[in-house]
Every structure is written in C-alpha cells, then in structure tokens.
C-alpha cells in the first residue's frame, strides 16, 4: 500500500468514526493550549516520520517496478 492509500484509509476511518475524530481533535486542541511545546514536538516528529515513510515508499515502488521490467526482459545480472 502506498502513502496516499494509507492517508485515504485514515481519513475514511475518521469519517466513519466521528466520535473518535472529535475526541482526537479535542485532545490535540487541549495539548496545543496547555502544552504547546509538547504539541509542536509531537507534530514535527510525526511530520518528519511521514516524510521519511513517503520517501521510502516512493523509492521502493521505483525499485519494484524496475525489478519487474528487468525480469520481463530476462536480463537478470
């Protein structure tokens, strides 16, 4: 599953479970109000990890497609 598929499944989960989405939003707003340093730290760590995950998934999908092309040609090194 690629990065955007995971994001779409998370969005679909929150759309189907409205109470969990509201509770998560309230928790995030509470953290932002009471402990902004902790909130920003968690936010930037999550942003960095999602960027790393996107990079890894993009590179691996490129490698898998290249491997498939090589195997179809029969030019296995």
Structure description:
The protein has one domain. 90% of the residues lie in helices and 0% in strands. The chain has three helices and no strands. The chain starts with a helix and ends with a helix. The mean pLDDT is 83.
Calculate the terminal CA-CA distance, rounded to whole Å.
28 Å
**Helical amount among residues, as a percent range?**
over 70%
Q: How many structural domains are formed by the residues? A: 1
Extract low-pLDDT stretches: none
Instruction: Tell me how many strands there are.
Output: 0
Query: Structural class, please?
Result: mainly alpha
The outline comes out as elongated
Strand content: under 5%
Encode the helix/strand succession as letters.
HHH
Q: Main β-sheet: number of strands, strand sense, barrel status?
A: none
* Number of helices, counting only DSSP H or I runs of 4 residues or more: 3
């Amino acid at each position: 599953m690629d990065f955007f598929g995971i994001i779409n499944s998370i969005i679909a989960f929150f759309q189907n479970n409205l109470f969990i989405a509201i509770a998560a939003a309230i928790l995030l707003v509470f953290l932002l109000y009471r402990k902004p340093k902790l909130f920003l730290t968690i936010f930037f760590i999550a942003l960095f990890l999602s960027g790393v995950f996107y990079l890894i998934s993009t590179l691996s999908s490129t490698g898998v497609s290249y491997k498939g092309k090589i195997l179809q040609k029969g030019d296995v090194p």
